Q: What sequence folds into this?
């Protein structure tokens, strides 16, 4: 088992291409080809987490927040970032951060928050555009089914909760092979007309290479005609925040009490109660005030996030209940998420959850 094997499985769930442009997710220290002796999953990586990993014989820390976010100009140990990186290098420990890409997938960080609240009918609050392609190809009628199944198996044809989606229309294609060709149908040097199906499927752009490889392998022609067309459609499985519904509507005070219980909170910062029932809930782990307007537009009764600044509370404007539950508190179950992702793929490997509490914020009650 190598560090790269672990990374490959994590990125199958949350591809690196889904991280935000400002982010620094990925392998921060170490090398992919290292043999992996064990993995510790954590929310943040600090000197204490590195010491924990070293003491347990684990040379890979999988973490949500990248310890290196801006540029590092020196390594003198003058702050916790530099000291953590120095410790990781000294102990030959790889640090892999899976940050906004794990935030942005529908089964990611926000889904774990929704689970704690028992939300149903979950969907992305602000889906991303520009992440989808349409593949168009032309196949002899008799082989169309085989090619279609190959495309589905490679990850094409998924639209929301529907799989194996495609469109086909019949037509006729013409071609004339050169003298040294070996056409599947027809004769070299002679124009041939073949009844074909035009097959169209949608695919995530991150699966482009896999899907095209599957097409070329399954297609009977020597030269395969296909088009890849970028789509402006929103990708409903990838984006910021989550929207869901409580099993039953409840008073706002009861909803705030549910937050305290579900996340073990000492305090919840929130806007004034509106005297309404809470049924539809929007949420975003970490700093999510940028989605307040979207949460209001969605018709949510409450929006749960963290790191809301004083003036940003005014943005609720009497239209929604804003609840700030704390950054660490909102994302604390990401450790379990990372562990579960890896456990499903490597059930007999040394996987551990960090026992170091990295929350830098304390509350005096």
A:
């Amino acid at each position: 088992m190598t560090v790269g094997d672990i990374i490959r499985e994590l990125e199958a769930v949350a591809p690196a291409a889904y991280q935000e442009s400002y982010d620094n997710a990925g392998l921060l220290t170490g090398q992919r080809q290292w043999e992996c002796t064990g993995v510790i999953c954590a929310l943040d990586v600090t000197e204490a987490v590195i010491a924990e990993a070293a003491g347990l014989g684990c040379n890979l820390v999988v973490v949500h927040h990248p310890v290196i976010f801006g540029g590092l100009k020196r390594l003198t140990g003058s702050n916790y970032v530099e000291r953590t990186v120095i410790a990781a290098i000294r102990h030959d420990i790889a640090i892999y951060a899976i940050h906004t890409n794990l935030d942005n997938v529908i089964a990611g960080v926000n889904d774990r928050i929704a689970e704690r609240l028992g939300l149903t009918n979950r969907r992305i609050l602000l889906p991303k555009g520009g992440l989808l392609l349409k593949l168009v190809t032309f196949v002899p009628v008799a082989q169309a089914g085989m090619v279609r199944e190959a495309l589905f198996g490679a990850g094409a044809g998924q639209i929301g909760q529907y799989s194996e989606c495609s469109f086909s229309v019949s037509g006729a294609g013409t071609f004339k092979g050169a003298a040294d060709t070996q056409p599947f149908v027809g004769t070299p040097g002679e124009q041939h007309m073949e009844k074909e199906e035009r097959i169209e499927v949608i695919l995530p752009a991150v699966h482009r290479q896999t899907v095209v490889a599957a097409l070329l392998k399954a297609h009977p022609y020597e030269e395969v005609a296909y088009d890849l067309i970028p789509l402006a459609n929103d990708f409903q499985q990838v984006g910021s925040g989550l929207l869901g519904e409580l099993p039953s509507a409840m008073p706002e005070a009861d909803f705030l009490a549910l937050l305290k219980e579900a996340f073990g909170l000492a305090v919840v910062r929130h806007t004034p109660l509106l005297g309404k029932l809470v049924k539809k809930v929007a949420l975003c782990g970490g700093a999510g005030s940028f989605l307040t307007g979207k949460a209001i537009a969605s018709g949510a009764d409450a929006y749960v996030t963290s790191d809301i600044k004083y003036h940003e509370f005014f943005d609720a404007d009497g239209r929604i209940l804003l609840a700030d539950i704390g950054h660490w508190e909102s994302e604390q179950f990401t450790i379990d998420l990372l562990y579960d992702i890896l456990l499903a793929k490597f059930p007999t490997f040394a996987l551990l959850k960090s026992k170091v509490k990295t929350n830098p914020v304390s509350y005096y009650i």
Observations:
- The two ends are 47 Å apart (CA to CA).
- The longest strand covers residues 234-251.
